[in-house]
Design a protein that fits this description.
The chain has no helices and 11 strands. It has strands at residues 2-7, 10-12, 18-26, 31-39, 46-51, 57-59, 67-72, 77-82, 91-99, 102-105, 109-113. Strands 2, 4, 5, 6, 9, 10 and 11 form a 7-stranded mixed sheet that branches. Strands 1-3-8-7 form a 4-stranded antiparallel sheet, with no helix packed on it.
Length: 115
């Protein structure tokens, strides 16, 4: 089993920045892809960004140029740097990690972008 713990969410004004962290614990050997997803009220959960164990990244079009995903394999932690935040970025952000054929989710961290 892999446990994922997100942190770093909060309230920020439009144009501001936040950095989310996702720390993996438990059976962390051979964790492969890690990613961030988000879900707004009444909407489906959507992909924000993913990063492979080798550092290859994929971003949703809506966040390209504003968000940056990274990972520190030594710390088993993934990060999401979010800049130029917009009200439409308001959502619960979830971390997801893959290990073998299994996928694991964190409990989520709430991000609210509002003036």
């Amino acid at each position: 089993q892999v446990q994922l713990g997100e942190s770093g969410g909060g309230l920020v004004q439009p144009g501001g920045s936040l950095r989310l962290s996702c720390a993996a614990s438990g059976s962390i050997f051979s964790i492969s892809t890690m990613g961030w997803y988000r879900q707004s009220p009444g909407a489906q959960r959507e992909l924000v960004a993913v990063i492979s164990s080798g550092g290859n990244t994929v971003y949703a079009d809506s966040v390209k140029g504003r968000f940056t995903i990274s990972r520190d394999n030594a710390k088993n932690t993934a990060y999401l740097q979010m800049n130029s935040l917009k009200p439409e970025d308001t959502a619960v952000y979830y971390c997801k990690a893959g290990r073998g054929s299994s996928w694991y989710w964190g409990q989520g961290t709430e991000v609210t972008v509002s003036s």
